[in-house]
Amino acid sequence: MVKRHFSNSIANIKLDVLVKNLKEIKNRMPGKKILAVVKCDAYSHGAVKISGAIEEEVDWLAVAHIDEGIELRMAGIKIPILVFGVPTYETAAAYQTHNLTATVSHDSHFSILMDGTFYHLNFDTGMGRLGFRPENASKVRDLAIANQRLICSGIYSHYATADDPGSEFVTIQNQRFINILSHFPEVPFVHMSNTGAIVNYGEINHFDMVRTGLGMLGYNSGNTQYEWLNPVLTWKTKIVQVRPIVKGDTVSYSSTWRAPENGYLATLPVGYGDGLPRSLSNKLKVLINSKLYQQVGNVTMDMLMVFLEDDKLAVDSEVTLLGEGAWDASKWAIHAGTNVHEILTNLTDRITYQY
Fold it and tell me: Of residues 14, 32, 33, 39, which has the active-site annotation?
């Protein structure tokens, strides 16, 4: 995160809520080890701070890229860290140097990694992204045995449709993975369930470890949200200008909004450069003095406008953009036509983060 001397907006990260969410997940997955996914700077929540707050609450961490793992090691994080990404000859030594666990998802990775490197096997049971195909499980086992200079400490797959309840494909993938595991009875860490599978599919086999990223931050990955998960992040700013607007006046680029009546217009010092989607233009509502007001006109890079109706609010009035009585990231996602992951990871370092 960039240190800012003058903040246009502040994201408050409640670490106690983070830990509470983890405990709720643990209660629903008794006896399971927990792998916390902190990739993409912990979904823009600050990977170092988040990882430090939960290090004693979880068994593993996971990141997407090796640089993210190195950052955590340099910050003093000690617990095991799995890197989801593809190892290369350029990154091979870093797994050893920084005690990071690699992902092996292709035959070539066995020859790329250095002696003594720990790794997890990744099988593609239906995600279609990375991983060995299920029918190659026996061949992969032979490769693992032939490459005992490396240490296989886990095996995993990933659900494609677990975001919401009712998907038959979740059950199909689960059974495919069970069949794969018959070839690897001695692997110590087996994991497939993401947040969606944890909260939506309690009846399936969750193996011995589950993964959560979005869940510990307070959200399910789909449209089905749960009251026992509470958002960790709240984003606030302040009004920088209030001025009269006359019925018929237009606002912002392309003049997509016209004032339906006389009133007041507030300008806020945030926009899509801070991570507020332009696709929320004329849709978003923000919270000021316990009242929701309509954002109007196209969201611009650095500013957005809010119609105050006939309320002449004061400059410097606090505005809640996200969370705490305003719309949460799930509602943002629905109206923006995207998912919660994109909403959160789009938040930029122009925002000042407080913990």
Answer: 39
Per residue of the chain (355 residues), give pLDDT as tens: 556 778 999 999 999 999 999 999 999 999 999 999 999 999 999 999 999 999 999 999 999 999 999 999 999 999 999 999 999 999 999 999 999 999 999 999 999 999 999 999 999 999 999 999 999 999 999 999 999 999 999 999 999 999 999 999 999 999 999 999 999 998 989 999 999 999 999 999 999 999 999 999 999 988 899 999 999 999 999 999 999 999 999 999 999 999 999 999 999 999 999 999 999 999 999 999 999 999 999 999 999 999 999 999 999 999 999 999 999 999 999 999 999 999 999 999 999 999 9
Q: What is the CATH number of the domain that holds 292?
A: 2.40.37.10
39 noted as active-site residue: yes
Catalytic residue among 139, 253, 291, 312: 253
Does 253 qualify as catalytic in the annotation? yes
Query: Are 158 and 253 in a shared domain?
Result: no
One domain, residues 188 and 320 = no
The span from the CA of 123 to the CA of 128, in Å, is 10
The verdict on residue 219 lying in a domain is no
DSSP string, 110-179: HHHSPTT-EEEEEB-SS--SSSB-GGGHHHHHHHHHHTTTSEEEEEE---SS-SSS--HHHHHHHHHHHH
SS3 content of the chain, % helix, strand, coil (to 5): 30, 25, 50
CATH number of the domain at 155, please.
Answer: 3.20.20.10
Per the structure, the complete domain to which residue 176 belongs is given by 32-212
Do 39 and 151 fall into the same domain? yes
Radius of gyration of the chain (CA): 23
Q: How many domains does the chain have?
A: 2
The answer to whether residues 238 and 189 belong to one domain is no
Q: Which residue type sits at 317?
A: S
